[in-house]
Amino acid sequence: MQFNFNKITTRKDTNSVQYEGTEPIFGTQCLEPFWIADMDIETPEAIRDAMKKRLDNGIFGYTIWQNKEFYEPIKHWWQTRYNISLDDSDIHYSPTVLFTIGETMRQVSSEEDGIIITTPSYNIFPNLIESNHRKIVESPLIYDKRSKEYFLDVDHFTSLCRNENVTMYIHCNPHNPTGKVWSKDELETIKNICEANNVYLVSDEIHMDFVRPKEDFVSVIDLSEESDKILAATCLGKSFNLASIPHSYFITKDKKLAQVITETAKEVYQVSNVSSLALAAIEAAYTECNEWIDQLNDHIQGNFEYINDYINEHLSDCLSFDIPKATYLGWISFEKSGFDTDVVHKAFIDIGGIAVSPSKLFLNHENNHFRFNAASNRIRIEDGMRRIKDTFDYLYDTQNCKSGTYI
Ligand SMILES: Cc1ncc(COP(=O)(O)O)c(C=O)c1O
Predict the structure, then answer these.
(1) From ligand 1's centre to the CA of 104, what distance in Å?
(2) Any residues with Cβ below 6 Å from ligand 1, and which?
(3) Which of 43, 64, 145, 192 has the maximal Cβ count within 10 Å?
């Protein structure tokens, strides 16, 4: 069956953060948005049908997650898509991925401890670390111009892990915002360094279903053995555009930590029941939507190729872009334009009328990149690229005006 990812569906009157929540970051509403990581693409029909069926029952009381409708689809997905066998006892419900990461941090580290993140970093990790009174320890990724890939600075990472105040590392695989996919060798190196220095390894794998090709995704769970200090957190929120249907799960062989997180969710936060709609969605997604997500990845790859061609044709003087091997987030540099970074980000808003994520949010201290969400129909992507071109055309025009060459 061929799925149509170019259908235009309005998000008017849905209170979407993507469209209606731009004010706190961009200072204004009514921008064409390509910032937050959700999709302008409908959730697959199979999932919507399953949720409708559940709705038809009419009763939505407290729902237990420890049941076969939770474990079986998750095991099926990991086995058939990633060739990883899981036991029920490896899999645990959690309300959100960030709840899992935050709770792991609270359990395995103490206040004032250092928590490593690779930078640029998904913007919420630094907030999560600081709001839990821990210290952000940055391990800047190195960009290799030849291979056009980001790499871990292994020596620097090792020296950070050796610091006795450092107790946890938040790994992001695939990596938001760069789209890096970590190889098995890289993961083994990281695992060994963390193990040798007693640093807890938490892997955020929320974008795992957007690795192209899918065979290149290696979960830390694939390297994990009984009672290793390793945990992976994920959900279906990104893959099937279900961010407003609360749910997530984590996988670990560390039974002690799993028990503590589950008990804390139950006793301290009272958030231990699963959404009945999420349960229906998980079963349909993980048993019926393999082909859908493969085709969605083809569509996203097509959008990235369009963006790449457009930049080469119209914006090669000012933008550099490498098609990412994962996620639906493009990480685009305007370093070579030479324009002041604040001026560019302001012009995106004032001239392009477009909301793209400024890279300072991701601790890209030069702030000379922006993150562009490509999970949309092609018409919106074309419109977004025109807005970016209008922005830079304006900047070049005003610059020429200033230098007197513009008449
Ligand atoms: C890497 C990463 N982790 C976590 C999240 C949010 O996950 P959740 O809403 O389940 O906490 C996002 C959302 O953009 C993300 O990109």
Answers:
(1) 15
(2) 37, 96-98, 122, 172, 176, 204, 206, 235, 237, 248
(3) 43
Q: Using the mean position of ligand 1's atoms as its centre, give its distance from the Cα of residue 98 in Å.
A: 6
Domain positions in the chain:
17-44+291-403, 58-289
Which numbered atom of ligand 1 lies nearest the CA of 125? 3
- Tell me the average pLDDT across 190-200: 98
Least confident of 109-118, 346-355, 361-370: 361-370
Mean per-residue pLDDT, 260-287: 97
**Residue from 76, 378, 99 nearest 234 by CA:** 99
pLDDT at 367: 87
Nearest CA to 318 among 209, 252, 392, 391? 392
Q: How far is the CA of 373 from the centre of ligand 1 (A)?
A: 14
Cα 243 to ligand 1 centre (Å): 9
User: Taking the domain 58-289, which CATH number applies?
Assistant: 3.40.640.10
Tens of pLDDT, residue by residue over 304-355, are: 999 999 999 999 999 999 999 999 999 999 999 999 999 999 999 999 999 9
pLDDT at position 407 over 70: no
- CATH 3.40.50.150, applies to 17-44+291-403: no
Kindly give the distance from the C-alpha atom of residue 407 to the centroid of ligand 1, in angstroms, as a whole number.
49
- To test ligand 1's pocket by mutation, which of 18, 39, 97 has the most ligand atoms within 8 angstroms of CB? 97
DSSP string, 226-252: TT-SEEEEE-STTTTT-TTS--EEEEE
Query: What's the pLDDT tens digit per position in 17-34?
Result: 999 999 999 999 889 999
The pLDDT assigned to 402 comes to 62
Residue-wise DSSP of 271-333: --PPPHHHHHHHHHHHHH-HHHHHHHHHHHHHHHHHHHHHIIIIITTT-B----SBSSEEEEE
Residue nearest to atom 7 of ligand 1 (CA): 97
